[in-house]
Structures are given as C-alpha cells and as structure tokens.
Amino acid sequence: MKNRAKRNTYSQMQRFAEITKQLIIMGNIGRAKQCMSIAENIFKKGNSEVKNAITNVYIFSVSTFMELHKCNIRNLFPEILKSEYQKQIRASGI
Asked: Tens digit of pLDDT for each residue in 22-48?
C-alpha cells in the first residue's frame, strides 16, 4: 500500500510538471509561476516523501525543460524551489 501511495505522489508531481511546462510553451508565464508557487507551498507543508517528489520529479523536469528552451530559471522559480534546484546543480557537478 505504501509503495502505491509513493508512486501516486511521484506521478502527480510528474503530471503537475507537465502542466507547468505546457503553460510555459503557451506563453502563459503568469500561470506557470502560479503552479511553481503552489509546488513551493506543497514543498513547505509536505512530508519527506512529498519533498522528495517535488525535488526529484517536479523541479528536475521543469528545470530541464526550461534549460533546453533557454528560459531564465532565476526569474521563474520561487526562492525555495530555486534553492532546491541549485542543490541539484551542485550535486551533479555541473
């Protein structure tokens, strides 16, 4: 049962990342920023599993997409998500 809930959390974060990326593609940056703010609020209130899902799925997926499309991450990510993104960068050695 616990594995199913974990998969569900990760799949929900992947779906939320896809929505955010679609908004960026459509040029609806305001709504994309709202999604990122929601993700940040969930991150603040979530347990370790939720935080891991946001970091490893949402932030990774959205930041990779934004880098490939040359979007300015500094201006779009809220502070906490930006900090988590920077941790990923430092950990990867880039």
From this structure: 999 999 999 999 999 999 999 999 999
DSSP labels, 42-74? HHHHS-HHHHHHIIIIIIHHHHHHHHHTT--HH
27: left (phi over 0), alpha (psi -120 to 50) or beta: left
The neighbour count for residue 9, using CB atoms within 10 Å, is 18
What b/e string do you get for 61-70 counting C-beta neighbours within 10 Å, with b at 16 or more? bbbebbeeee
Please check whether residue 75 is in contact with residue 68, taking contact to mean a CB–CB distance below 8 angstroms: no
pTM: 0.87
The residue type at 51:
K
